[in-house]
Backbone:
């Protein structure tokens, strides 16, 4: 699948390694920046770009790195059809896709290290939404909220 990755200065240190991991998993990776480690850059700019790339269908999944993952998730969820969350464990990373159709994963580079981040991304990208009636019903409730 096509995966878009982004990071502000808080997440910058993990981005290149994670880009290589995703590439090695045989996904096509789009890197929307940051392309330099600028301590004055702002996570909403990159989280918006990741979210809009997924929402427009140019990528099927997004990964956004910031210091905690929190600002990235708050921002990405403002974009219609984006279901983003911070996941710092592998269970949430795959269950969030299977039950909640999560399409943007947010990671805090100041919270976890590269090896756990790698395993979380492998879980996220390996997971598929389970199209059971109860999961579809719950997603439709979220979509109805989004449309209000
Ligand atoms: C940047 O210093 C930091 O505030 C940002 O990366 C992120 O942690 C926000 O949630």
Residues:
């Amino acid at each position: 699948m096509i995966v878009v990755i982004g990071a502000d200065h808080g997440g910058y240190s993990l981005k290149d390694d994670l880009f290589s991991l995703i590439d090695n998993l045989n996904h096509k990776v789009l890197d929307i920046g940051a392309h330099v480690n600028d301590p004055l850059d702002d996570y909403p700019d990159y989280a918006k770009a990741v979210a809009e790339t997924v929402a427009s269908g140019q990528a099927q999944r997004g990964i956004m790195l910031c210091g905690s993952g929190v600002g990235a998730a708050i921002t990405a969820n403002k974009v219609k059809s984006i279901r983003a969350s911070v996941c710092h464990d592998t269970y949430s990373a795959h269950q969030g896709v299977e039950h909640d159709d999560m399409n943007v994963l947010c990671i805090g580079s100041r919270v976890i290290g590269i090896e756990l981040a790698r395993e979380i991304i492998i879980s996220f990208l390996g997971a598929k939404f389970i199209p059971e009636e109860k999961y579809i019903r719950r997603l439709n409730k979220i979509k109805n909220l989004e449309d209000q």
Notes: The helical segments are 12-24, 43-55, 70-76, 90-100, 114-126, 133-147.
